[in-house]
Amino acid sequence: MSSLSRIRFSYLVFLVLSLAGPVRGQRTAPDNLKWLNPDDNRLRWLNVADWESKTGGLQPVRMPKAWRDKIPDRSAARALSTAGVALRLRTDSSKIAIRLTFIDVPEAVNGSPESAWERARPPYFDVYRDGRFLANVPAKIAYYEQDVLLFDDSTEAKKESEFSILFPHYYRNAEVIVAGIGLDKDAQLLPPAPRNVPVVLFHGDSITHGHGVTSPRETYVWQTCEMANCEALNLGFGGSAWTDVSVADYIASRNDWDVLVLMLGTNSFGGNDSTGKRETLAQYRDKYAAFIDAVRAKYSTKPILCITPILTHQDIIRQKNKNGDLPQDYRNAIQQVVEQRREKDWNLYFLDGMKLINDPLYLLVIDQVHPNEAGSLKMAEVISAALKPILKDLNVQRSKAAE
């Protein structure tokens, strides 16, 4: 059996085991809790653009429907994933639970082996207490209402703490209807302290979305902002980030970010646009320029960090697309667009993605496209280093404005 076959076999085994029953470590919420509506104004939600009413509760989405109707259908579907969604609350409750239903997203026709693996991966919640990582809690892979106990400290004296709870980040098993947040019946609940740090919006493909790592805290987006002391908004669209100007218009419509990080290009390596129509390298270069122009039409001075794609399978085997172009040709085109604009736009920055990952050691063996956990960490280290001076300048400007 080849190494690739063994990997696929192991994923098949994982799929069977995962679908067979609950995941070890899973905890069911006790009965004696009070349940808060997810839109309670004492709860703070990160990366939720809107709440949509569904049977059984409310669904958090990363892009409102009015905007989803303007972008490609596949991108719109990815905007329903809770990648980057987090709940923040301050409470003395000895228990925190969530009542939810995962939406069953059907498999695509002729889906890849990775898609079956992805569907079988447990939906993990990451729990932080007072800024320190506390636990990684899996929910059931099930499409009916369930209660998940995220925190239980009932053996200790009550203590008021601030909690951050990161939601599942994958494409499937990450579309969620939230019915309620459970706390002790006598628990106090206060809004969390405001975070006076810059907000960074990340837009990209499956690499930004988080494909390749196990839990949401391991995505390069989350790790980058932990290292650079900023707040992350994840607008990653797995397999569907084609540099469409309609997405740039949506980003420009938002006023909740201070810095924009773009890592686009990988989904366009094949030489097609979002409709499947042939797209030349020159056309893609023009589209990338139009994307930046759309954001700049609204925000002329907000920092934008443009990152070219990391190493990918086509680089390794030197495979050209149907138009005769290599991935490096796309990197060069993006760099050309950014450097031309940098002559007048001092708040536009460039980072070569090959400085993030240029060795297959940091990629998933199964596809040599997505970063593994070591790769995600390496990406975060390089990107945070590029962001820190940008964020420092922002903080200086804020301090001067406050004087």
What is the third-level CATH name, the topology of the largest domain? Rossmann fold
The computed structural class is alpha+beta
CATH architecture of the largest domain: 3-Layer(aba) Sandwich
Low-confidence stretches: 1-25
Mean pLDDT: 91
Shape: globular
C-alpha Rg, in Å?
21 Å
Highest CATH level, the class of the largest domain: Alpha Beta
User: What proportion of the residues form beta strands (DSSP E)?
Assistant: 15-25%
**Straight-line N-to-C gap:** 68 Å
Element pattern in H and E: HEEEEHHEEHEEEEEEEHHEHEHEHHEH
The number of distinct β-strands equals 17
CATH homology-level superfamily of the largest domain: SGNH hydrolase
Give the topology, please.
Blueprint: H1 3-20, E1 33-36, E2 44-46, E3 50-54, E4 57-61, H2 65-68, H3 73-78, E5 86-91, E6 95-102, H4 113-120, E7 124-129, E8 132-138, E9 146-152, E10 161-166, E11 176-184, E12 189-190, E13 199-204, H5 206-209, H6 220-228, E14 231-236, H7 245-253, E15 259-263, H8 281-296, E16 304-307, H9 313-317, H10 327-342, E17 348-351, H11 373-402
Parallel strand pairs: 13-14, 13-15, 15-16, 16-17
Antiparallel strand pairs: 1-11, 2-5, 3-4, 5-10, 5-12, 6-9, 6-11, 7-8, 7-10
